[in-house]
Amino acid sequence: MTDDPFREVLAQVVDAIAEGVYVLDGGGRISFWNKGAERITGYSREETIGKKCSDGLLRHIDEKGRELCLDGCPMTATMADCKPREAEVFLHHKDGHRVPIYVRASPILGLAGQAVGAVEVFSDRSERSTLLSELESLKKEVLTDPLSGLGNRRFAELRAKSSLEELEAGGSGFGLLMLDIDRFKAVNDEFGHAIGDRVLRMVAWTLANAVRRNDAAIRWGGEEFVVICPGVDAAVLADVAERSRALIERSWIALEDGRKAVVTVSVGGALARPGDALQSLVARADERMYACKAAGRNRVEVDHEEPISRRG
């Protein structure tokens, strides 16, 4: 019995699992790419075999936006010291947005005990946030933005109303982020409105994957997005804002003519105070966001004034 039938059966087994699996040869090029990898990344086997993952494909980054293909790649480190590694990173999806994944890299050893390649198994760890699960279960189109699939302004109003009522009753507070895509008109002017819509979806889904599980990522309108973050202080709100900014900056859409559509966002944040309405909270976050625009864009600024509790 030759190795070929065995390899075919093995490939069929690996194709049947839900996780993504790919193999690098000794030169760091992809030699195997299963169907799970196709599903999670959007890239077909034909688009990946023979390429390096840094060739405009996965381009893993950490939550601070650091490109691991340039510094800190788990697969490269595993091939260097023959030790398995695990990490939580964000990959680049073919549609442009960032997807959070859990990766496990293991060396493939030759007869001399040296690494002749490596295999990575990765799984999608995006929760789609509680907001998206809620929207999918309710199936209420009136609360959903049709372009991005996120909640719309009406959903934001309902979510903020219940959060403000909880705050007034002495419950936990929350924060709000306002994000605006920098120079979005220039994107439409350069690439056209069809690509502009794809950029909006890219930003929307990267944002949905960047926020915490219970945060609500919402399309406020146009190129503006809102995130409602329960149970945060100023430091946590700033962390969510910075992670969102960094991941969006490291996302892109590859166009057929070789160009890339890349955008940044300016992010302002504010903590809810007793007596707030959604309009006053949005106004404070908006003020911080425009301060970022004035300071050069692609920045985060959060109001660090803690709300006064009405407990007791």
Quick rundown:
With 312 residues, this protein is an alpha+beta fold.
Word description of this protein:
- The termini are far apart.
- The protein is elongated.
- With 312 residues, the protein is of the alpha+beta class.
- The chain is built from 10 helices and 12 strands.
- A hairpin with a 5-residue loop joins strand 3 and strand 4.
- It has a 5-stranded antiparallel β-sheet.
- Mean pLDDT is 89; it is low at 307-312.
Main-sheet strand order equals 2-1-5-4-3
Q: Compute the number of structural domains.
A: 2
Q: Characterize the overall form.
A: elongated
- The CATH topology of the largest domain is what? Alpha-Beta Plaits
Taken as a percent bin, the fraction of beta residues is 15-25%
Q: Helices and strands: which structural class?
A: alpha+beta
Q: What proportion of the residues is helical, as a percent range?
A: 25-40%
- Kindly report the average pLDDT value: 89
Order of helices and strands: HEEHHHEEEHHEHHEEHEEEHE
The total beta strand count reads 12
Instruction: Kindly provide the name of the CATH class of the largest domain.
Output: Alpha Beta
The parts where pLDDT drops under 50 for at least 5 residues are 307-312
Main attributes of the structure:
Beta-Lactamase; Alpha-Beta Plaits; alpha+beta; 312 residues; five-stranded antiparallel beta sheet; 12 strands; five-stranded mixed beta sheet; disordered C terminus; 2 domains
